[in-house]
Amino acid sequence: MRRRQALVAALGGLAAGCGYALVGKGVTTDPSIKRIGVPLFHNRTGRSDLDATVTQAVIEELQKRGRFTVVKEASGVDAVVEGDIIAYSTVPVNFTDEGGVSQASRYAITLTASVVYRKIGQKQPIWANNAFTLRDEYDMDTQATSYFDREQLSIGRLSQAFARNLVAAMLEAF
Q1: Number of domains present in the structure of the chain
Q2: Cβ-count burial 24-51 (b if 16+ within 10 Å, e if not)
Q3: Of the chain's two ends, which shows fewer C-beta atoms within 10 Å, N or C?
Q4: Which residue would you say has higher pLDDT here, 141 or 152?
């Protein structure tokens, strides 16, 4: 009986030792990077104010990390995050039928940017992605006048999510 209990305890210990572990290496940021510059992203889309909204969201997300001083220029910094917003689209994804007329009731917006995070004085970037993309959706009501208000709210949400995902991708080695 004791032998059986010992065997069960040993097998239990072995089973507890088996499991999943994170493969990533955690933070990949060079510890010498204390000050990061985030100049205004270039807006190649024609959608006004998208550059300012996305850039500000990235700055705020980096500041939330608490390890960096974040400024809006590329001079006097240890590293820089540079971005080009290369695509923005709004497309209807759901329709309702009102009296034989089909009307869009839900829209999806997609934002794509080319982003480079590099240490000043180094040619090789720390992190880069030529097509970093995120999408958000929003519902429309029957008032056509609220279209631009809903789109603007969605752009705000998308910019914050975009910045959160972008900063995580830049700073974490997963």
Answers
A1: 1
A2: eeeeebeeebeebbbbebebbbebeebb
A3: N
A4: 152
50: domain CATH number? 3.30.160.150
pTM score above 0.85: no
What whole-number distance in Å separates Cα of residue 113 and Cα of residue 43?
9
CA distance 163 to 64: 11
Q: Over the chain, what is the mean pLDDT?
A: 84
Is 157 inside a domain boundary?
A: yes
Task: Tell me which residue range forms the domain holding 59.
Answer: 27-171
Residue entry with tokens 């689209």: 89
CA distance 163 to 58: 5
Q: How many H-runs (helices) and E-runs (strands) does the chain carry?
A: 3, 6
Residue 6 falls inside a structural domain: no
Spatial separation of the C-alpha atoms in residues 20 and 161, rounded to whole Å = 28
Q: pLDDT digits over 20-77, tens only?
A: 444 444 445 788 999 999 999 999 999 999 999 999 999 999 999 888 999 999 999 9
**Token code pair at residue 95:** 């329709």
Q: End-to-end CA distance of the chain: give it in Å, rounded.
A: 47
Tell me if 2 is assigned to some domain: no
Residues 144 and 107: beta-carbon distance below 8 Å: no
